[in-house]
Amino acid sequence: MGYQESWLYVQPQMCFSNLIRAYEKTARTDYYRTMGAEPMSVVILKRPFGEVPKGVKLLWVCGDRCFHTPVGVFNGNLKSPAKLCFIPVEQVLDPDDYRLKGIDLNSRAPSENAYMKRYSVEDYIVRTKAERER
User: Fold this and answer.
1) 59: how many CB neighbours lie within 10 A of its CB?
2) Is the confidence at residue 2, as pLDDT, over 60?
3) What 8-state DSSP symbol labels residue 133?
4) What CA–CA distances, in Å, run from 119 to 4, 77, 127?
5) How far is CA 99 from the centre of its chain?
6) Which listed residue, of 39, 61, 83, 109, carries a Cα 20 to 30 Å from 77's Cα?
7) Within its chain, how far is the Cα of 60 from the centroid?
């Protein structure tokens, strides 16, 4: 199986911004076009999923699972002492899971339901920068 998806969960959550900065630095190169597993979405859980509590921000990472590592996702650009956990999506969701209803994983536009909010990584970055500037 070549293409797989994982949730990247960081603890403590205050280190989530480190993941976003590492993504931005990596995205400025051609790395995601040629290698690695790319973060495609930011998900904010509105309800717990297994042992992952509500309120948690996750990166939804897509690509060959052998690259689902900090180096594979961020090409060595992640500088954080935080604890990272990769959770294979199939451990928490089925492809036709009711908790995905209304969530568009292929759009740049945000989507939301009773279980999660989903943003494209690019849209999340734009929104957080705009919020900081206010």
Assistant:
1) 28
2) no
3) H
4) 19, 22, 10
5) 17
6) 109
7) 3
Tokens at 91, concatenated: 């451990």
- Cα(90)–Cα(97) distance, integer angstroms: 10
Residue 120 in tokens? 């494209």
Q: Is 119 exposed, middle or buried (0-12, 13-18, 19+ CB in 10 A)?
A: buried
Residue at 72: amino acid letter: G
Query: How far is Cα 50 from Cα 1, in angstroms, rounded to an integer?
Result: 25
Q: What is the pLDDT of residues 72-121, one digit of tens each?
A: 999 999 987 789 999 999 999 988 899 999 999 999 999 999 999 999 99
Distance CA 69, CA 33 (A): 17
Of 47, 41, 44, 42, the residue nearest 115 (C-alpha): 47
CA 31/CA 59 separation, integer angstroms: 17
pLDDT digit string, tens, across residues 20-40: 999 999 999 989 988 878 999
**Does residue 1 carry a pLDDT above 50?**
no
